[in-house]
Amino acid sequence: MPPSTEETASAPAVEETTKRPSEEDAVAEIAKKAKVDADADADAKAGPDLTKTHAYGKLILFGEHFVVYKVPALVGAVAAYTDCSIKVEDTDEKDSSNDSETGVVKIVDNRPAVPNYKTKKAEEGKKAIDLVLNHFKIFGKGKKATLTFGGNLCCASGIGASAAQVVSLARAVKETLPQYAKLTEDEINAAGYEGEKGYHGTPSGIDNTAATFGGLLKFQRTDGEPIFEKKAIKEPIRIVYASTGITSCTTEVVGDVRSKKEADPAWFDDLLKKYCDLATKGEKALEAGDMAELGKLLDENHKLLQDLTVSSKELDDLVDAARKAGAIGAKMSGTGRGGLMLALTPDEATQNAVAEALEKVAPQVWKTSFQ
Asked: What is the distance between the alpha carbons of residues 235 and 218, in angstroms, rounded to a whole number?
């Protein structure tokens, strides 16, 4: 994925239709009972076209914020996904939207989400969708397109929902428009990276890469193309993750970290050095299947993120609750200052116990595994 692109055609006019239940309904819909982040029947339920547009959520094991500064990160794609369908039709000749050189795009957002997520992210989402459509230079004058987003990935800060949305859109372009039928996975990933700029300004690329390729990945940003490789592991890694219910703004938090770095370079360089050591040890622990060591390193990584000032009381409380319930390691995951945390659990019984403990204190809880 290129670090930058040329400006393409002006953005299409965008209108949004989002199903937004009341907060009480939203919380009821996303039950507090821990959800298993996989569904054996999901592909069949989605249908053949939507199955082809799946894009996955992610959890970062090592690398929050530091990955922006071109050091390696480790990320696991979760089983939950966002999908997208596209319907293209001619606009009515009397329709005033016919005057638009780029046509009209209607967004129908049926993704499950924590309360207020889609409201707070609406403008960023429109911008992200514009960037993907402009990247492909599609939907010209006299055309109307309806983009419908769905799937079982619950939108929450830290899970990579924005990347899953734009990557699923890129997949839908491939499935819907004959001229793009031969898009490669790398080209879909590149389009996802362009869309992520709408949400994050200058994204690292880690989220869209996980959304596109899935699996457990080692990722490193460079001045050119990013470097990433799939990691093989000896046995499934069981994870419980939970939301604080707080939607954070990645652009704002990343900008604040950058300001602190510029104000005190020695402080940041010390944290970066400690992080690089942790990430190296974490990769070795993963390869060796040493869950006890991996858990210890996750705990140390959370402390490092506290020192970086991107954790919060809500995240720290969930991390403490998971550890007390038997997690062998726990940390915040993603942007921070809200969003998600994750807990490493050595077996199914512990995974269930940690999930039950978190259900008592977190608005939403899920179980997943990296394989």
From this structure: 17
Task: Please name the fold of domain 13-22+34-230.
Answer: Ribosomal Protein S5; domain 2 (3.30.230)
- Alpha-carbon distance of 190 to 316, in angstroms, equals 35
* Selection from 343, 349, 334 nearest residue 362 by Cα: 343
Beta-strand runs (E) in 23-169 = 35-36, 55-62, 73-90, 104-109, 143-151
Alpha carbon distances (Å) from 126 to 18, 23, 306, 330, 363:
12, 22, 32, 34, 27
Print pLDDT tens along the chain (371 aa).
Answer: 433 333 322 333 333 332 323 333 433 344 445 666 544 344 445 555 788 999 999 999 999 999 989 999 999 999 899 999 999 888 765 554 444 444 588 999 999 998 889 999 999 999 999 999 999 988 766 778 899 999 999 999 899 999 999 999 999 999 999 999 999 999 999 999 999 999 988 888 999 999 999 999 999 988 888 898 999 888 889 999 999 989 888 889 989 999 999 999 999 999 999 999 999 999 999 999 999 999 999 999 999 999 999 999 999 999 999 999 999 999 999 889 999 999 999 999 999 999 999 999 999 999 998 87
The pTM (predicted TM-score) of the whole model is: 0.81
> What secondary structure letter does DSSP report for 85?
E
3-state helix, strand, coil in the chain (%, to 5): 45, 25, 35
SS3 for 145?
A: strand
237-370: CATH architecture: 2-Layer Sandwich (3.30)
Structural domain spans, the chain: 13-22+34-230, 237-370
